[in-house]
# Entry
Amino acid sequence: QVQLVESGGGLVQAGGSLRLSCVASGRIFVINDMGWYRQAPGKQREVVAGITSGGSTNFADSVKGRFTISRDNAKNTVYLQMNSLKPEDTGVYYCNMVIRPMDRPLGSSYWGQGTQVTVSS
# Structure
């Protein structure tokens, strides 16, 4: 069974930095796209950043220039480096990966349990 586990969230002052990590485990054949989403209180989940298997990245306009996304395929891990954090970045951050397990012919979308990021003003 495939599982995603995030880490690295916490409380930080505005202007500070955090680095989120998300590790996939289980019987994995291949991981395609990876990404990060966030959900603020009372709002819908929104995409923050994504990275393809080829390394192409994309970012929400609200985080461009402040956040970077990277992946380590050998470790089945995706990272989100968040700099110059703002109070509006507060929310639960979820990682998402499109993974093809060993025992399936196609990939599926998997989610982590979420990690809380709180930015104080």
In short: The CA atoms of residues 37 and 47 lie 4 Å apart. The mean pLDDT is 97. The two ends are 41 Å apart (CA to CA).
